[in-house]
Amino acid sequence: MSVELPLWRALTGYRLLTLGYALTLFFLNYREYAHPAGAALYMGVLTLWTLLTWNRVTSAERCTKSFLIADLSIAIAGILLTAVLDTGERIAAGSATLPSIWAGGAVLGMAIKGGWRWAAVGSTIVAVANLAERGAAARDTVHNVVLVWVSSIAVGYIVEVARASERTLARALQIEAATRERERLARDIHDSVLQVLAMVQRRGAALGGEAAELGRMAGEQEIALRTLVAGGLVPPQRSAEQLAEDAELVGAVRTAPAPPAGPCDVRALLAPHAGATVTLSAPGTAVLLEAAAAAELAAAVSAALDNVAKHAGQDAQAWILLEDEPGEVIVTVRDDGPGIPEGRLADAEREGRMGVALSIRGRLRDLGGTAELVSVPGQGTEVELRVPKDRRGSEDTR
Q1: Taking the C-alpha atoms of 119, 124, 130 and 135 in order, what is their torsion angle to the nearest 10 degrees?
Q2: Which end of the chain, N or C, is surrounded by fewer C-beta atoms within 10 Å?
Q3: Domain boundaries, the chain
Q4: SS3 label, residue 318
Q5: DSSP single-letter state for residue 131
Q6: What is the C-alpha to C-alpha distance for residues 398 and 393, in angstroms, rounded to an integer?
Q7: Any idea where the Histidine kinase/HSP90-like ATPase domain is (predicted)?
């Protein structure tokens, strides 16, 4: 809901309440006016105008500039007519004008519609009319004039700040949605296209001849695609050894079984990873998780194992531990490789190598979970993935 809507509703109530207040003052002092019939005629016009136009101040679209001018004109006319229809003694004593505080509603309408500048213009016109009606700058009149002037400008300024905040929030939500979609596409690219290009580059370099040229082109496209995935940043120049390292085969793209509709057993998705170098430890009973979340979790585990094969070597041992907790599913992937040097992950992200940032952490973040990576040089690496079973609470929190 727009922050302006409560202000328009409050203004509608203000106009109706202040109309009742002005009518009460008029009836209590009816016989004291110099021209009671003229005063009654104006109050009748003011009542009809307020009742017939009450819905014009319920939204910014209905409250047009022409309506605000007409509304302010009726308020100014009532203030100036007070000098003609009331007695000089009552005016000198500081009696209320015919519209009384109803005139403030016209100024507040200009403040909400046009901001503090419109409020300053409207309140200044009302102030001049009040001083002209009184004929002197009496203390109570000046006090009321300053109060209307300051309050209306403050309301107008608050409205402008609220509008700017709404625009900033809308822009931030658009950027967040675009960023999430970009990260999702980047994960898919990293898990498929980049690995295939790396395989073509490595195999082409090994075969030589025309295949080597094809491999070189595949390597160039891989670098360009990594740059795009990383956000369009130009990567630093790298040596031939670094390019060869980038082009190492991560492994054939693992194809996990398609998750069925409804709850899915995470054990079935992790079972294909078990082998001579990968040990899977799981509960004896089914570990159920929403199908889409289970598939994303399995993809994150696959990305972690790809990193083991790439950085620890094809012969490195890895262990997968699946735990079924009451509120979440925990998967731990540990290896006995050399570990990750300090600062290497940050350097990889700057160079466009987004495996950990997107394929692992990005996936878990979108699931409302967490991915913690602990690595000690010479002692291997451990990745702990946590996915909540009830994702609705996580999505509401985000």
Answers
A1: 170
A2: N
A3: 4-166, 192-252, 254-398
A4: strand
A5: H
A6: 9
A7: 292-391
Q: Mean per-residue pLDDT for 155-183?
A: 83
pLDDT digits (tens, 9 = 90+) for 207-257: 777 777 787 787 777 666 666 655 543 334 434 444 344 334 333 333 334
Tokens 């079972």 correspond to 271
HSE, CB side, 13 Å, CA atoms: give it for residue 306.
Answer: 25
Is residue 111 classed exposed, middle or buried when 0-12, 13-18 and 19+ CB atoms within 10 A define those classes? Answer: buried
Q: What is the DSSP string of 274-316?
A: -SSSEEEE--SS--EEEHHHHHHHHHHHHHHHHHIIIII-TT-
Cα separation of the two ends of the chain: 19
What angle (nearest 5°) sits at the alpha carbon of residue 382, between those of residues 379 and 388?
165
Decide if 370 contacts 330 (C-beta within 8 A).
no
Q: Which pair of structure tokens corresponds to residue 203?
A: 């195999």
Rg (CA), the chain: 36
The single-letter code of the amino acid at 343 is G
What the block records as the tokens of 127 is: 């102030």
Give the contacts of 321 (CB within 8 A, at least 6 positions apart): 281, 330, 331, 332, 334
Taking alpha carbons only, the member of 330, 340, 335, 261 closest to residue 300 is 330
